[in-house]
Structures are given as C-alpha cells and as structure tokens.
Amino acid sequence: MQLWVILGRGPLGNALKLRLGDKCIQLASRNWINDPVDFPSEVKGVFLAVPDDQIVKFVNGFFQRNISIPIFHCSGVTPLSSISFYSKSGVWYPMQSFKGKNTPWAEFPVFWEALDSSLIPILEQFHIDLNIPKGLIYSSEMRSKYHLAAVFSNNFLNHQIGMLQEYCSLSGIDPSFFDSMVQKTISNALSSRAYDIQTGPAHRGDQATLERHLEMLPERMQDIYKTISSRIAEIKMRKN
Predict the structure, then answer these.
(1) Which residue segments constitute the domains of the chain, with CATH numbers given?
(2) pLDDT of residue 34
C-alpha cells in the first residue's frame, strides 16, 4: 500500500489525514523538527503542511539527515527554487481554504511542480489515493499569481462580507436583508465584466453621500471605505 506522511496538524494537514485515512501518517511538525524520526520504507512522499516561513527549515532537516524521500511543500507563493538543494523536492499546492470537514475535494485546482519529472508519477498516485483529478503543472511564478488572485476572490471578498455583518451588528439592522443582494452581485459580476456594471455613490461622483457615509462609520472602517471608493472613482474617470 502507498503510504504518505503529512507533516503538520493545521487545517490542511487535518483535511489530508481525514481524506487519506490509514493511507497516511500525520505528524505534528513541531515534534518532528525537535526530534526527527525515521519513516517506514513504505512512505512514498512527505507533504509539508507547515507555515511558509518554516518550509526551508524542514527541508534542510531532511537534507542534513540524508533522507531521500520525495518532499512536497504546499505553499502558493514559496518558489521551488528555495528548496532546490534537496534533489527530490516539489510542490503540491491546493487552491482552497480548508475549514471544517466538508472539503469539496473534486472542485478546486491543485498545482504541481517538481525538480525532476520522475516525481510526477508520485503526485499522480497521491491524487489517486485522494480520489481527485490530476493536478496542473505550473511554474512557481504562475502559481504565485494564482495564489494572489485567490486572495482577492476568497480572503478579501470574505472580509468585505464580514465588514457588512459587523456594520449591521453595530447599527442594529438585520444582515440577512443583504443575502440576496450579495449573491446577485457576485453572480452578475461573474457573468460580465465587473467594472462595467459598477454602481454606487463613488461611481457617480456623489461626494455628499460619500461624506455622510464616512460620518456614519466607526473610524476603524473609514480607511477601507475611502480606499475602495477612490479606486471606483479612479476607474470611472479612466473609462470616460
């Protein structure tokens, strides 16, 4: 049986363990780096589900111990070149946030990269065991671009909805009133060019409304309101 090692007990490491079951060994990364242990001969690959700033340290630990098992980091922005001193190194980056137990495994892209083409069959087997489609072989540069775009589509969008919920809570209004509006806005933006369907006071140059809104907002929310409004107005002027 193929056996995999997952180093890390964060959301990604836990999701991989839940998906792979007895096909993988999950280790706490801090425990391993402080007290490295050898791996069973059945292990075909190690996946580093660790913070980006810890990746090189872990790979260097393998290098210093003359371990020859293929290692794959799971970072969106860390270049493969940063661990190229380890000859059997690669990247396995899933473009997905891992929260809870309902991971949509077949619905998100996974990016592959490897120093040596002989590592690709190992990634293919990993995907077979995960029961998901093959990954996409992309360069570090392209992968980092997709990662940055994912921050806009996921993290920033989620934060803006969080700000909506926070404002509603502060103002004593029901945030569910805006559920259909949010869903419709996202649907419309995805079906056309979002800039072309922009509306609102910043788009039409309604300075009085913008100033009134700023007065209504707590100070901690004013900067982002001003920044986004300025950006909307700038794009409108550029198009005219």
Answers:
(1) 3-138 (3.40.50.720), 144-239 (1.10.1040.20)
(2) 79
